[in-house]
């Protein structure tokens, strides 16, 4: 007499890094990044980007639902890092490579798109481009 073992495979949920950025204790922006690797190195890189913005922040690894809540918050200026987040929530088509370096607007929010953290880990030369995009977003947040 044998014992049957059933295994349920659950697909890996899409995850993101989501942060709210503050100035004078008021939310002024957000950052949403693809969480492709979900490892310490990727997490450390995203945290370093957020800290380099020199603004108080809250957030971290989040689910798809939490990312949608972040995007639907009253904060109307944000940074998207990565193709998955851009394709899902960006206001226009195109790839990150063709759309970065610009302020994009949909009905109620402005956003800047740049490369995913996993791309930065694979190609260090992309860091300068991402930093330029982050600085553009910071200028938008300093209204």
Report on this structure:
- This protein is an alpha/beta fold and 143 residues long.
- It has one domain: Uracil-DNA Glycosylase, subunit E (3-Layer(aba) Sandwich), CATH 3.40.470.10.
- Helices cover 37% and strands 26% of the residues.
- It contains six helices and six strands, in the order ββαβαβααββαα.
- It has helices spanning 40-52, 64-71, 83-89, 96-99, 117-122, 127-141; strands at 15-23, 26-34, 57-63, 77-81, 104-105, 110-114.
- Strands 3-1-2-4-6-5 form a six-stranded mixed β-sheet.
- Strand 1 and strand 2 form a beta hairpin.
- The longest helix has 15 residues, at 127-141.
- The chain is globular, with a radius of gyration of 17 Å.
- The mean pLDDT is 90.
Structural class: alpha/beta
Beta-strand fraction estimate: 25-35%
- Number of helical stretches of at least 4 residues: 6
The ordered string of helix (H) and strand (E) elements is EEHEHEHHEEHH
Total tally of structural domains: 1
Sheet having the most strands: 6 strands, mixed
CA radius of gyration is: 17 Å
